[in-house]
Design brief:
Order of helices and strands: EEHHHHHHEEHHHHHHH
Mean pLDDT: 80
CATH architecture: Up-down Bundle
Strand order of the largest sheet: 1-2
CATH superfamily: Rhodopsin 7-helix transmembrane proteins
Number of domains: 1
Structural class: mainly alpha
Shape: globular
Distance between the termini: 40 Å
């Protein structure tokens, strides 16, 4: 997830700008970005290992152990699928930054990897929003939840999410490209410098539609849910539902606060600073801040499984059985254990 990769060294100096194909002289800012070649490969490698080890078992449980799905399970499965597809694309970016911005895989794969990042990012945002709205309906409008919470409706909504996000990001396939600088080939996350102004307008529209609006909907739903849950609810079942709802609120807001909000804020400031031609000192600070928050956007692939663990009772039971079940265990346990609940087994 590189930027359009401005050159790197120190302060403003007259030089050939990265987009000056005709030899026109312009003033360029040069930044020291040595930290990027350590931070990004290491952080992406951690996300790849952790994300794959968490999401592959999650997909296995959803596909083979957790049927039939309800609406919430449907949204969570598609969220896990989105995260898995993203982490599978990270090895190419790990190599790219470890090789100091040298992309040997061709323009087509560059476009696909950049597209896949944003597809995962905004699909995750929308699936988390779907989970939030579904939980809100269940708490505040139970009768509507009976109609909108059906599994076939959830499947249609998930299909719409995949298609809407892909359609909104199609222009990104045209903007993203590769270019050469000396002996290295850059894989731009944005576009060529001469098209950067157009890219900023496109990116701002996508961010408002696929992040700003869903984030606002999520906040409104959780605000209304918090007001409803503040009232006393009698009964153990309602208390269990309250606890799951509070866990959902906590996990989803944590994912937004850690992964999505910092990345979008710093990226917006970075784009504006470049568009408004800020001085090199300001641009340097913004550039560093933006690159530091980029791994956070990828970390949602590692944090999303916490949502399944904390809010899905059936998911926890199946995961416990998957991790702790021993061969012939049923033959050796006592009759007292056989009639006890799974949660009370020695695998706790």
């Amino acid at each position: 997830m590189a930027s359009s990769e401005p050159p790197a060294l120190g302060s403003p100096s007259p030089s050939l700008g990265p987009g000056s194909g005709s030899g026109d002289m312009e003033v360029a800012c040069w930044f020291d970005e040595e930290f990027k070649f350590i931070l990004l490969p290491v952080s992406y490698a951690v996300v790849f290992v952790v994300g794959l080890s968490l999401n592959i078992p999650t997909l296995f449980l959803f596909l083979f152990r957790l049927h039939p799905w309800d609406a919430t399970a449907t949204y969570m499965f598609h969220l896990a699928l989105s995260d898995t597809l993203y982490v599978l694309s990270l090895p190419t970016l790990i190599y790219y930054y470890a090789a100091r911005n040298d992309w040997p895989f061709g323009t087509g794969l560059c476009k696909f990897v950049r597209f896949l990042f944003y597809w995962n990012l905004y699909s995750s945002v929308l699936f988390l929003t779907c989970i939030s709205v579904h939980r809100y309906l269940g708490i505040c409008h139970p009768l509507r939840a009976l109609r909108w919470g059906r599994r076939h409706v959830a499947n249609l909504i998930c299909l719409a999410v995949w298609l809407i996000v892909a359609a909104c990001l199609v222009p990104n396939l045209f903007f993203v490209t590769t270019s050469t600088r000396g002996d290295t080939t850059l894989c731009h996350d944005t576009t060529k410098p001469e098209d950067f102004d157009h890219y900023v307008h496109f990116s701002s529209a996508v961010m408002a539609l696929l992040f700003g609006l869903p984030f606002l909907v999520t906040l409104v739903c959780y605000g209304l849910m918090a007001r409803r849950l503040w009232r006393p609810l009698p009964g153990a079942a309602q208390s269990s539902s309250r606890l799951r709802s509070l866990r959902t609120i906590a996990v989803v807001l944590t994912v937004f606060a850690i992964c999505f909000v910092p990345f979008h804020i710093t990226r917006t400031i970075y784009y504006l600073a470049r568009l408004l031609e800020a001085n090199c000192y300001t641009l340097g600070i913004v550039n560093i801040t933006y690159k530091v928050t980029r791994p956070l956007a990828s970390a949602n692939s590692c944090l999303d499984p916490v949502l399944y663990l904390l809010t899905g009772d059936k998911y926890r039971r199946q995961l416990r059985q998957l991790c702790c079940k021993r061969p012939n265990q049923a033959r050796t346990v006592s009759s007292l254990v056989l009639v006890s609940r799974p949660e009370e087994s020695s695998c706790r």
